[in-house]
Amino acid sequence: MIIIIFSFFSSSKTIKMKNINTIKINFKGGIIPPADLYNILLAAEKSELLYVRFGLRQQLLFDVPIENLDNLTAELGKLKINFELNNDEYPNIVSSYPAEEIFIKDTWLTENIYKEIFQSFSHEQHLKINISDSNQSFTPMFTGNINWVASPDETHFWHLFIRFPKTNVVYEWRDIVHTKELAYMSFFIEEIILNEREKFYNNDKANGDELYEKVNTEKFYVKSVPWPLQLPSFNLPYYEGLNIYDDKYWLGIYMRDELFSTRFLKDVCKLCLKTGATQLCSTPWKTIIIKGIGRHHRKQWNHLLDKYYINLRHAANELNFQVEDNSLKALQLKHHLVKYLNGYDTRTFGVCIGIKTRRKSEVFCSILVRRRPLIRLGKLELFHVYDILCAKDYNPNERTDFVYSSTNPKFVLAEQLRRAVLSYYNRTREPKGVPVTR
Q1: Is there a contact between 199 and 213 (Cβ–Cβ < 8 Å)?
Q2: Residue 162: what are its φ and ψ, rounded to 5°?
Q3: Fewest C-beta atoms under 10 Å: which of 68, 260, 376, 417?
Q4: 382-400: per-residue pLDDT in tens?
């Protein structure tokens, strides 16, 4: 399921925070049927929603004024659309499907296999699940709690990594698991974790071997892990623009303010249906990708981009950011940092920069900017400062390795971040910081 976030904004795109409710709709794995999205957008327009946003878990969200809420929920009910209101009890399944064919080559994990897996998840899961090809770094592998990574050597088998909820404890499973078992085994593991929360939930001493022993592997088609999975080095592809692959085109669209016009997306859906480009995907970079565009339809897509003045060539040091969902402060901080990096023409190739303003949130990044209060009185936070943390080997799929700098006031943060980015290119002389968790 993808999560779609619909937001009510004024014409100046200023977020109205009072009496706003968030509706979340999931589409598994980031696959969005254009016809379904079109009908959802019609319902959004009837409720006077002008913009939508996509989230880190490939979701689409609506932020709805209280006066429009009843009308929108009624319209979604008519469409038989499952949604959550002001809640995230059932997180979306994240997958590397949007990268399939265009960024991932020579793999056994095809479009049909992805879709078979998503169809097998008949239950709504409470824990976060990631399904990833091992031969890519476009989508995060370990931001879920139950993380399946396709074996590069054994067709139809998967490595499993458990990240215990509300912790940074990651456990690599002893077996590789067959494709047909992913959904049921995920459900089985989730039941154990949720039924024994004191052991496996919000517990930094959670024991992966103990969880493994509680799962009766004789029920499942598994093999022993031949050797630990080697993670690919991080290399973020340029994920926007109209680009050729094989004998087709793919189109990636990024919005600086994270806002997609409902009118624009409706026309995207109509053109997808008209031209047969039915592979419309949401990505963890809060963007969309349309795959399977025929060469003879390229002109029609260019006309659509012209109609809405869509810019396709943003700087790489802007595209390399990951920002928390529903955080205006984090988005404003991103714009501040991007402007500074642009001013110094700072190279960011190979680095992913994350911004985190809330405790226990998960952001996929090589370098993390973490905002925290110096003083916390209950829910009251005073005097915010910023820490810069770096992942092991600067690989976003690894855990935090060291603190580059801590307790920075905002006026020095951008320069400290620039220096942290430079340390990536000069790793042999990088500072030996203090190991921490995110």
Answers
A1: no
A2: -100, 120
A3: 376
A4: 899 999 999 998 999 887 7
Three-state DSSP at 376 gives: strand
Mean pLDDT, contiguous 10-residue spans, the chain (438 residues): 46 52 94 97 94 94 92 94 93 97 94 97 94 95 96 96 93 96 97 97 96 90 91 90 95 96 98 94 97 96 98 92 92 96 92 91 92 87 93 88 94 97 78 44
Q: Which of 224, 241, 257 is the last residue of a domain?
A: 224
Look-up: residue for tokens 């700072």? 346
**Mind giving me the DSSP string for 380-434?**
EEEEEEEEEEEEGGG-TTSPEEEEEEEEE-HHHHHHHHHHHHHHHTTGGG-----
Number of domains in the chain: 2
Determine, yes or no, domain membership for 271. no
- Which secondary-structure segment (H or E) carries 243? strand 241-245
Q: Which of 188, 206, 224 delimits the end of a domain? A: 224
Is there a domain that residue 111 lies in? yes
Q: Say if 209 falls within a structural domain.
A: yes
Domain extent, residue 422, equals 317-429
Helix (H, G, I), strand (E, B) or coil at 263: helix
d(CA 357, CA 369): 9
374 part of a folded domain: yes
DSSP string, 313-357: ---HHHHTEEE-TT-HHHHHHHHHHHHHHHHTT---TT--EEEE-
- Is residue 219 within 8 A of residue 189, CB to CB? The reply is no
8 A C-beta contact, residue 337 and residue 417? yes
> Kind and range of the H or E element at 32?
strand 31-32
- On whether both 323 and 216 belong to a single domain, the answer is no
Question: 188: part of which helix (H) or strand (E)?
Answer: helix 182-195
What predicted TM-score, i.e. pTM, was given to this entire model? 0.91
Identify the CA nearest to 302 among candidates 243, 257, 242. Answer: 242
CATH number of the domain that residue 389 is part of: 3.30.413
> Does residue 116 sit in the same domain as residue 219?
yes
